[in-house]
TrEMBL record:
Any one GO molecular function term: 4 iron, 4 sulfur cluster binding
Superkingdom of the organism of origin: Bacteria
InterPro entries: Acnase/IPM_dHydase_lsu_aba_1/3 (IPR015931), Acoase/IPM_deHydtase_lsu_aba (IPR001030), Aconitase/3IPM_dehydase_swvl (IPR015928), Aconitase/IPM_isomerase (IPR050926), Aconitase_4Fe-4S_dom (IPR036008), Aconitase_B_HEAT-like_dom (IPR015933), Aconitase_B_HEAT-like_dom_sf (IPR036288), Aconitase_B_swivel (IPR015929)
Name this protein carries in UniProt: Bifunctional aconitate hydratase 2/2-methylisocitrate dehydratase
Domain Aconitase B swivel as annotated: residue spans: 176-406
Organism, as annotated: Sphingobium phenoxybenzoativorans
Domain Aconitase B HEAT-like: 6-162
Keyword Iron-sulfur on entry: yes
NCBIfam families: PRK09238.1
UniProt GO cellular component terms: cytosol
Residue ranges occupied by any Aconitase/3-isopropylmalate dehydratase large subunit alpha/beta/alpha domain in the UniProt entry: 411-894
One GO term (biological process): propionate catabolic process, 2-methylcitrate cycle
Pfam family, any one: Aconitase_B_N
Keywords: Iron, Iron-sulfur, Lyase, Metal-binding
Length: 929
C-alpha cells in the first residue's frame, strides 16, 4: 500500500500543475492497485479500478505484464471482478498491443476451453505486434491440428487486421492555425530544454509553442468541432532541424485523435502543413503517427513578363500569395481526388504527394510501423499455411530505367533491399524495404524510443542489425536530478535490449558521453551500409545515414528494417584550389551559398547530396555530411577514394578497439564483429574485388552543383539574420556571409567550439592559435567567454598524449571533472576559456545556454531561435555559425575579425586541407590524422 500512497501524493502534486495522474508503468505499483480492486470494501477501490482500466501503459512495461496476468485470471474465471467481465477483459487485452497481452491471448486461444479460445482467437486477429516466438507458437499449434490457430493464421494471411479497419475519409475538413512565419524548427514544438519530460506526454505537451497558442488551438477546436486543426509554417518549411517525435506527439496531443480510450495522452493523426512543405525527416515522423503532411505552396515567386523572378533590394525573390491560410481559415482536403480546396470546394493546390497509396495505408492503420509489422505477419502466415497472401497492400513502386546507371544511394538501396522482385534494378522513386546495418539512439529521445519498443512489445535487438549504440551526449553537460532520474534507467533498458551503451548500468566502465554522431561514424565500417539514428545529424561519411524519429529508431532496432522511397540525388563536385588560410568549414558554407546562386532554389531539400570528396578522411568529411541536415537534405553520401576509405576504416577499427578495451563490449560480441567486418571490407578494397562505393558514369541526378574553391577567399558565416524585415528569412541556414560583411565590428558575447561539427583537428587549432597569440602579444586575454567541448574522450586522450591538452589547460579558467560533474546549469559566463565535458553542450540547448540576448559565434549547426541562446527583453539572441579559427579569434577580440586580422591569426596553422579528387596529392590529408 505504501507505493500506492506515494502515487496518490504524486497525483496531488500533479494536480497543482494542472496535470492528470501519470500513467502507470511500474508492475509493483499496479500489483498494489489490483490488491485494492480485489478488496471489495476498500475506500480506494473505485479509483484503483480507473487506474487499472484507463491509466496503465501497454506493451512490455512491467505494469503491462501484471495487467495482462490479472486479465487472464478474470477471463479464465479464476477471479471475478463485477466491473470487468471476461468479454471486457478481452477488449482491454486487445488495446495492449503486444508482448504479455499477446502471450496471454495465445495461452487462452490455444487452451482447452473451446468457447473462450474462440473469443481469444477473434481478438488475436486484430493484433499485429507479434514476434517470432508468438508466430512460432501459432505455427506449432497449427501443425498439432489446433483449429483456432488455423483460423487465426488464415485471418493473418488475408491481413484482416488491416482490411477490417475503417478507411480514411474521402473528405477531411480542417481549420488552420499559423504556428509561425518562416521555417518552423521542431524546437518550437518540443523545446530541447524540456527534453527531460518527453516521456511524460501530458507534461511535455505544455511546452508546445506557447500557452497562448495552446489556448488558441483549444478555442479553434471548440468553434469547429467537426474539423481537425492544421498546424502551419507560413512562408516556410514545417519541422526543420530534427525529426523530434516529441514534436509530432505534442501536435497530435493538441490536435489529433486519441489512439485508445484505455491509454491516456497517446494521440495520432496530426495534420501539418508548410508553404514549402514538410522537412524530410519530420515528414517521416508524421507518417509514424498516421498523420498528414501537406505542401501548401500558398506563396509563389512573383515573375516579370519574361517569366523571371522579380528580385527585391535584398536580392531575394518577391513572393505573392496564391491563397490565404491565416488562422481560422476553413479548408477541405479532398482525399479521394487528392486536392486541397477552400471551404466552397474550389481547388487550391494538388496534394497528391501527401496521399500516396503507402501514406494512405499509414493513415488507415494509425502508424507506419503497424504496416511494417502487418506485412511481416501476413507473409509468415501465408508461408505457414502454404498459400499465397491475399493482395491487400499497395504494391511497392518499382522503377527501373533501362540504360540508366545507378547513383551511389541507388546502389546502396539495391544492395540492402528486402522483398523486391528478384533481379530487378531499382532507381529513385522506388519504394523499398531495406536492411538497416547500424542504429543509433541518443539520450533525450532514447526514453521515447524505449517507450516505443515497449509499446510494440519488442524485447531484444534484431539479429539483422550489425551494431547499435545508445549515447549519453545530449545530457552530458549537467548531471542534474532530471538526468540522474532518467539516464540510468534508459541505459539499463538499452543495454539489456542489446545496444552498446555510453554509460554502463553496472558501473564498471567510465561513462562515455561522446557525441553520438562521432561514435556512429566510427562504428559504421561499410561504405555500403544503411544507418538509422534518432537525430537529424545522423549523417555518416561512410554509407548513407538517415536521421529519424524515436519510433523509426525503435522499429529499426526491433526489426532490422526501414521502409522508404529511394531518394533522388544531387551531385556535388569541386574545382579550383583551396586557399591555405581557409578551413574546410568555409567550403561547407560556400557549398550552400554557391548552390543557391547556381540553382535559385534549394535543390538539396529532400534529396541525397552525393559529395565527391574523396581526399578527406572520415572525421573531416563528416563536417560536410553533418551540415547537410541544415541544407534540408534527406541524407548525404561521401564518394571516397580507395586508400582514403581504407585509412578511415583503420582509424575506425582502432577506436572500436578502444571501446572494447574500456569494457564496452556486450555479450553478443558486437564490437569485435564490427572490427571483423572492417577487416573484410578493407580486404575487398585492396584486392579490387569491391572498390570504394562510386556511382555509375551514366547515373542520373536531379541536379549537379560544382563548388568553385578559387572564389572562397575569406571565412564564411551562417547568419540567422534575426532582424530581417521578412520574418520568413530569419533563422534559416541559407544566409551565408563573408566575414568582411561585418567590417570587424560585430560584437560577440560568447564563442563555442564543440558539437558534432568539430574533430580532433579543431581542438589542435584552438591550442595552436592560443600559442601563436601568446607569442605575438605576450599573453592571451579573452574579451568574450570561449566554451570548448571536445566531441569524444578519445580525442582528449590523444590531445593529452600529443601535448595539446596541456596548452588548453594552461589558458582555461574551468575544466570539467568527471568525479564531480556539474549538477546545475551555468547561467552566466566569465571572459575565460571553459573546457567542458565531451558531449553536445550548447548545441543541444536542453541543459546549458548562452546568456539571454547574447550574440554567439559557434562551430555548431543550430542557429534556430531559442536553441543555443534565448531572446532577452532588450535584444534578440543570435547564434552565428563559423569555423573554429573564426570562433576562437572572435572570443579573444570580443568581435568578429576583419579579413586581415583573420589571415594573420591563422598564418602557419595547419587548417583542414582539401583538394578535389582529380588533383589530390599525397599531402592532401590533414597532418592531424
Amino acid at each position: 500500500m505504501s507505493i500506492y500512497l506515494d502515487y496518490l501524493a504524486e497525483i496531488k502534486s500533479r494536480e497543482e500543475q494542472g496535470l492528470a495522474p501519470k500513467p502507470i508503468d511500474d508492475g509493483i505499483l499496479l500489483g498494489e492497485v489490483i490488491a485494492l480492486i480485489v478488496d471489495a470494501g476498500n475506500e480506494h477501490r473505485a479509483d484503483a479500478l480507473k487506474f487499472f482500466i484507463y491509466n496503465t501503459l501497454p506493451g512490455t512495461t512491467s505494469a503491462a505484464v501484471v495487467k495482462a496476468a490479472f486479465l487472464k485470471q478474470i477471463i479464465l474465471g479464476v477471479t471475478a471482478i463485477p466491473e470487468i467481465t471476461p468479454a471486457f477483459a478481452l477488449e482491454l487485452l486487445s488495446h495492449m498491443k503486444g508482448g504479455p497481452s499477446v502471450e496471454v491471448l495465445l495461452d487462452i486461444a490455444l487452451g482447452d476451453d473451446a468457447a473462450i479460445a474462440k473469443q481469444a482467437g477473434e481478438v488475436l486477429k486484430t493484433q499485429v505486434f507479434l514476434y517470432d516466438a508468438d508466430m512460432f507458437r501459432l505455427r506449432d499449434a497449427l501443425q498439432a491440428g489446433n483449429a483456432v490457430a488455423k483460423d487465426v493464421l488464415e485471418s493473418y494471411a488475408a491481413a484482416e487486421f488491416f482490411t477490417k479497419l475503417p478507411d480514411v475519409e474521402d473528405e477531411i475538413k480542417v481549420v488552420t492555425f499559423i504556428a509561425g512565419e518562416g521555417d518552423i524548427s521542431t524546437d518550437l514544438l518540443s523545446p530541447g530544454n524540456q527534453a527531460h519530460s518527453r516521456s511524460d506526454r501530458e507534461l511535455h505537451g505544455q511546452c508546445m509553442i506557447s500557452p497562448e497558442a495552446q489556448q488558441a488551438i483549444v478555442a479553434l477546436k471548440a468553434q469547429h468541432p467537426d474539423k481537425r486543426v492544421m498546424l502551419i509554417a507560413e512562408k516556410g518549411t514545417m519541422g526543420v532541424g530534427s525529426s523530434r517525435m516529441s514534436g509530432v506527439n505534442n501536435v497530435a496531443l493538441w490536435t489529433g485523435k486519441q489512439s485508445s480510450p484505455y491509454v491516456p495522452f497517446v494521440n495520432f493523426a496530426p495534420v501539418v502543413g508548410g508553404t514549402n512543405g514538410i522537412s524530410p525527416i519530420f515528414a517521416t515522423t508524421v507518417d509514424v503517427t498516421g498523420g498528414i503532411g501537406i505542401n501548401l505552396k500558398n506563396w509563389a515567386k512573383k515573375t516579370d513578363g519574361e517569366g523571371k523572378p522579380i528580385i527585391n533590394n535584398d536580392g531575394n525573390p518577391v513572393l505573392e500569395q496564391k491563397f490565404s491560410v491565416e488562422t481560422g481559415t476553413v479548408l477541405k482536403i479532398d482525399v479521394k481526388n487528392r486536392k486541397l480546396c477552400d471551404e466552397n470546394g474550389e481547388e487550391l493546390v494538388d496534394v497528391a504527394a501527401a496521399f500516396t497509396p503507402q501514406k494512405m495505408e499509414f493513415m488507415k492503420a494509425g502508424s507506419s510501423y503497424a504496416i511494417v509489422f502487418g506485412k511481416k505477419l501476413q507473409s509468415f502466415a501465408a508461408e505457414t499455411l502454404g498459400i499465397e497472401p491475399t493482395p491487400v497492400y499497395a504494391p511497392n513502386k518499382e522503377i527501373t530505367v533501362e540504360g540508366q546507371g545507378l547513383t551511389a544511394v541507388e546502389k546502396i538501396f539495391n544492395r540492402n533491399a528486402v522483398g523486391v522482385t528478384p533481379g530487378k534494378i531499382l532507381h529513385a522513386g522506388s519504394d523499398v524495404r531495406v536492411k538497416v546495418n547500424i542504429v543509433g539512439s541518443q539520450d533525450t529521445t532514447g526514453l521515447m524510443t524505449a517507450q516505443e519498443l515497449e509499446a510494440m512489445a519488442a524485447t531484444v535487438i534484431s539479429p539483422l542489425v550489425d551494431g547499435a549504440y545508445q549515447s549519453g551526449c545530449h545530457t552530458a553537460s549537467v548531471w542534474d536530478k532530471k538526468a540522474q532520474a532518467n539516464i540510468p534507467k534508459l541505459m539499463s533498458f538499452m543495454n539489456n535490449f542489446g545496444l552498446i551503451t555510453a554509460r554502463d548500468p553496472k558501473g564498471v566502465y567510465h561513462s562515455m558521453t561522446d557525441v553520438i554522431h562521432k561514435v556512429l561514424n566510427d562504428i559504421t565500417v561499410d561504405d555500403w551500409a544503411i544507418i538509422i539514428g534518432g537525430d537529424s545529424h545522423t549523417r555518416m561519411s561512410k554509407g548513407v545515414a538517415f536521421g529519424a524519429d524515436s519510433g523509426t529508431v525503435a522499429l529499426a532496432l526491433a526489426t532490422g528494417e526501414a521502409t522508404m522511397p529511394i531518394p533522388q540525388s544531387v551531385k556535388v563536385t569541386f574545382k579550383g584550389t583551396m586557399q591555405p588560410h581557409m578551413d574546410f568549414r568555409d567550403v561547407v558554407h560556400a557549398t550552400q551559398a554557391q548552390m543557391l546562386a547556381q540553382c535559385g532554389d534549394n535543390v538539396f531539400q529532400g534529396r541525397i547530396i552525393e559529395v565527391h570528396i574523396g581526399t578527406l578522411l572520415a572525421d573531416q568529411a563528416f563536417t560536410f555530411t553533418d551540415w547537410t541536415a541544415e541544407m534540408k537534405a534527406k541524407a548525404s553520401i561521401c564518394i571516397s577514394q580507395d586508400e582514403t576509405l581504407i585509412e578511415s576504416l583503420e582509424i575506425a577499427k582502432s577506436r572500436i578497439q578502444i571501446m572494447i578495451d574500456k569494457g564496452m563490449e556486450n555479450a553478443a560480441g558486437t564490437l569485435k564483429g564490427l572490427i571483423a567486418k572492417a577487416d573484410a571490407r578493407i580486404a575487398e578494397i585492396r584486392s579490387g574485388v569491391k572498390p570504394a562505393l562510386a556511382p555509375d558514369a551514366n547515373a542520373k541526378y536531379f541536379a549537379e552543383v560544382v563548388v568553385d574553391l578559387d572564389i572562397i577567399d575569406e571565412p564564411m558565416i551562417a547568419d540567422p539574420d534575426v532582424n530581417n524585415i521578412d520574418v520568413s528569412k530569419r533563422y534559416t541556414h541559407d544566409t551565408i556571409r563573408p566575414v568582411s560583411y561585418y567590417g570587424g565590428t560585430k560584437k560577440v558575447d560568447l564563442g563555442f567550439v564543440g558539437s558534432c561539427m568539430v574533430h580532433k583537428g579543431d581542438m589542435k587549432i584552438v591550442a595552436q592559435m592560443l600559442k601563436n597569440i601568446e607569442k605575438a602579444d605576450g599573453k592571451v586575454e579573452f574579451k568574450a567567454p570561449l566554451v570548448v567541448a571536445a566531441p569524444t574522450y578519445n580525442i582528449i586522450d590523444e590531445l593529452k598524449a600529443e601535448g595539446d591538452w596541456d596548452i588548453l589547460q594552461k589558458y582555461s579558467g574551468f575544466e570539467f571533472d568527471d568525479v564531480k560533474p556539474k549538477t546545475t546549469n551555468r547561467t552566466e559566463y566569465e571572459n575565460i576559456l571553459y573546457l567542458e565535458r565531451p558531449g553536445c553542450n550548447l548545441c543541444m540547448g536542453n541543459q546549458e545556454k548562452a546568456e539571454r540576448g547574447d550574440t554567439v559565434l559557434a562551430t555548431s549547426t543550430r542557429l534556430f531561435q531559442g536553441r543555443v541562446v534565448e531572446d532577452s527583453a532588450e535584444k534578440k539572441g543570435e547564434s552565428l555559425l563559423a569555423s573554429t579559427p573564426v570562433v576562437v579569434l572572435s572570443a579573444i577580440l570580443g568581435r568578429t575579425p576583419n579579413a586581415e586580422e583573420y589571415k594573420s591569426a591563422v598564418e602557419g596553422i595547419d587548417l583542414t586541407k582539401f583538394a578535389p579528387p582529380k588533383s589530390a596529392s599525397a599531402g592532401s590529408s590533414s597532418v592531424h590524422f
